[in-house]
Design goal:
Number of helices: 4
Structural class: alpha+beta
Order of helices and strands: HEEEEEHHHEEE
Shape: elongated
Distance between the termini: 46 Å
Strand content: over 45%
Number of strands: 8
């Protein structure tokens, strides 16, 4: 299984590099002198957490650019993961390519990006799950009221499990962004990204991974 994951990572990174190179070749030797560098902040929210990064967009041609990010990913998965509660976070960095429909970076942009995060996740499984499995969601209150001894016994049988897991996460996403000019130097706009979280290395008990959808806000300065 580990070899399969590693092969997938290599294949993804090769494709990630070949796609922008082919687009760059199609553009020819377009000049990037008139296209500004962008430096700013990007905040993203997703159902199980949030990401804050410092972002740098470097022009490679009239419409193609390289995106670099570094920041923090906070995970508040609650019961979205493999346990009843998962929360934590960690630092990471991103590398991507972005195609813009205008040479001044305003308007629509479409890109591919790969994030790599190292997250420390604290997880726990609540006692009540044992009771739910034995008597069902609807009957646990009845048992607690009219058979308290049995209720306490079921609680004792379950106990509370908790622990910590460190994961290295590869997060490839497709990004759609729109920037409008708030001033001559300030650009602001929303973004939408879709992709997946892949736990490429896990130290501890397994935690959640899977599809991800992120809503973002960019505040960028033209340099």
């Amino acid at each position: 299984m580990v070899r399969v994951i590693l092969l997938f990572n290599v294949a993804f990174l090769v494709a990630f590099l070949l796609l922008p190179l082919s687009a760059l070749a199609a553009e020819g030797d377009g000049e990037a002198d008139g296209r500004p560098w962008l430096l700013g902040l990007e905040a993203q929210a997703y159902p199980a957490g949030g990401i804050g990064t410092l972002r740098l967009d470097l022009p490679l041609g009239d419409h193609l650019g390289l995106t670099l990010r570094a920041g923090y990913n906070g995970a508040f998965r609650q019961d979205f993961g493999a346990h009843d509660d998962e929360r934590g976070g960690g630092a990471g960095a991103s590398l991507g390519m972005l195609y813009s429909n205008s040479a001044n970076a305003e308007g629509w942009g479409l890109g591919l990006r790969a994030d790599y995060w190292r997250l420390n996740i604290a997880w726990s499984d609540q006692r009540r799950n044992r009771l739910d499995r034995v008597v069902g969601d609807e009957d646990w209150l009845f048992v607690a009221l009219f058979a308290p001894a049995e209720w306490r016994n079921l609680h004792t049988l379950q106990g509370k499990r908790q622990g910590r897991t460190t994961i290295d996460v590869l997060q490839p996403t497709l990004e759609l962004r729109y920037l409008f000019a708030a001033s001559d130097t300030l650009l602001i706009g929303p973004s939408l990204s879709a992709g997946g979280e892949i736990n490429v290395r896990t130290r501890g008990e397994g935690v959640g991974q899977g599809p991800i959808l992120l809503f973002g806000l960019n505040v960028m300065l033209r340099l």
